[in-house]
Amino acid sequence: MKVKIITLLLLSCSYLVSAQVKKWTLRECVEYAIENNISIQQSELDLENAEIDKSDAVGNFLPSVNGSASHSWNVGLNQDITTGVLRTATTQFTSGRVSVGVDIFKGLQNQNRLRRSKLNILANQYQMDDMRDDISLAVANGYLQILFNRENLVVQKAQYAVTEQDLKRTQELVESGVLPKGDLLEIEATAATQEQRIINAENALRLSKISLAQLLLLDDYESFDVADEDYMIPKSTITEITPEEIYQKSLTFRGDVKLSMANVEIAEMDLKIAKGTMMPTLTGFYGYDTRVSHQDRSVATGQTTQTQIGTVQSTGDAVVTQTPVFGVAGPLPFVDQLWLNDGQSFGVSLNVPIFNGFAARNNVKRSEVNVRRNELMLKQTKLDLENTINQVWNDAQSAFKTFEASSKTLEARELAYQYAKERFDVGLMNSFDFSQAQARLDNAQAELIRAKYDYIFKLKVLEYYFGIPVEEL
């Protein structure tokens, strides 16, 4: 009973451990890499900046509103800002201003900046799409490398298992005196070589897993593994399509081509903006000002004083003048002064550029050079794409032929090995020749695996340039 309980516990623990190890599919690897790649995250930030630039461009069409206020203390002879009277005193004044400005005509710069900001958003999106495609291709390459190393390890272990059986049988024949000891030593050397190959295959498999895990930015290298899937040669008609047809199709969706085209349009917009700086600008403005004095003020008391200023010569009557009597009162209420002392100004301002040290003209020339540079970059991008597609198409054709040749070679090596084994079993072949036949079979099996995954990857690259997603393997 105890033995059964312990066995169940061990099986449960083994199941839990195996359940915790995630087996990644190619699609999961591609999606995770795209989501967590640092370069793509940086590109997403660039896209956010482009959206902010668009908001700036929209804001250029809106009026600009500014407000200002000040409070000052003046000591000595100064002018009262509300009455204009000069007097010697310590005074306080408060003033405020609100101004509004709007561009009526600015050489179409605002319109062109808005168009440029929209093109810049598209350019950043194309750049991000291009990065995603490149990362997907790199992930697919790393994924297939793991599958290749895993299948190669399986083959190496299977070959070693066969060698172990031959070693056991040879040892029995040597002990019975049927075969010389040299044959045993030769088989043992072959087994040792295969053990080394198994170790190398295990190391290659582990390193390929680490490499893909690093590409995915995973920290747990040891538990990372891909799904147990046996990929066969996919059925695809992509090699029947001419490179020219693939190239024409790729021009319609490739991110690098669209990015280059968008850069040309952005450069053309920069040229229009530069030309706009050489045109007159018309701006409308409106301003509202008010001021407040915090000083005491003189006010009439309603009383007058009479002062004789002379006499009438004919009658002798006195000539007097009446002068109003003023008293001192505090300043008017703050709010009342705001409305009593306010003022408005409005109008239009015309600015005509006449000479600015060749700065505007040289900016136009630089923009024209930049347009030509981006046009050349677009032409080079298309040329590179066409050359790459032709190379990839040739590589896929060559890889398929190599795979077919490797398949035929393996069939021949298997027949040769079977014939050699039959001769070795009846003593008509020595162990050295038999080991050579087995080594040739091992090499043919390894070469077939390499050719298989090399063809699968190059086929996927060709489909990638035709617009078929990499993860659809």
Description:
- This protein is an alpha+beta fold.
- It has 2 domains: 313 residues, Outer membrane efflux proteins (OEP) (Up-down Bundle), CATH 1.20.1600; 35 residues, no CATH class.
- The chain is built from 10 helices and 8 strands.
- The strands form 3 sheets. A 4-stranded antiparallel sheet has the order 2-3-5-8. Strands 1-4 form a two-stranded parallel ribbon.
- Helix 4 packs antiparallel against helix 7.
- The longest helix is centred in the first third of the chain and has 67 residues.
- The N terminus is likely disordered.
- This is Outer membrane efflux protein.
- One of its GO terms (cellular component) is cell outer membrane.
- It holds the Pfam family OEP.
- Its main location: membrane.
Looking at this protein, list some descriptive labels:
single chain; 473 residues; alpha+beta; Outer membrane efflux proteins (OEP); four-stranded antiparallel β-sheet; two-stranded parallel ribbon; 10 helices; 8 strands; elongated; membrane
Any idea what the shape is? elongated
Q: What is the CATH superfamily label of the largest domain? A: Outer membrane efflux proteins (OEP)
What does the largest sheet look like? 4 strands, antiparallel
CATH topology of the largest domain: Outer membrane efflux proteins (OEP)
Tell me the count of domains.
2
DSSP summary: helix tally: 10
Could you tell me the strand content as a percent range? 15-25%
The structural class is: alpha+beta
- Give the overall pLDDT as a whole number: 84
Distance between the termini: 49 Å
What's the alpha carbon Rg, rounded to whole Å?
Answer: 45 Å
The amount of helix comes to: 55-70%
Task: Provide the succession of SSEs.
Answer: HEHHEEHHEHHEEEHEHH
Low-confidence stretches: 1-19
Number of strands: 8
CATH class of the largest domain: Mainly Alpha
CATH architecture of the largest domain, by name, is Up-down Bundle
> In which order are the strands of the major sheet placed?
2-3-5-8
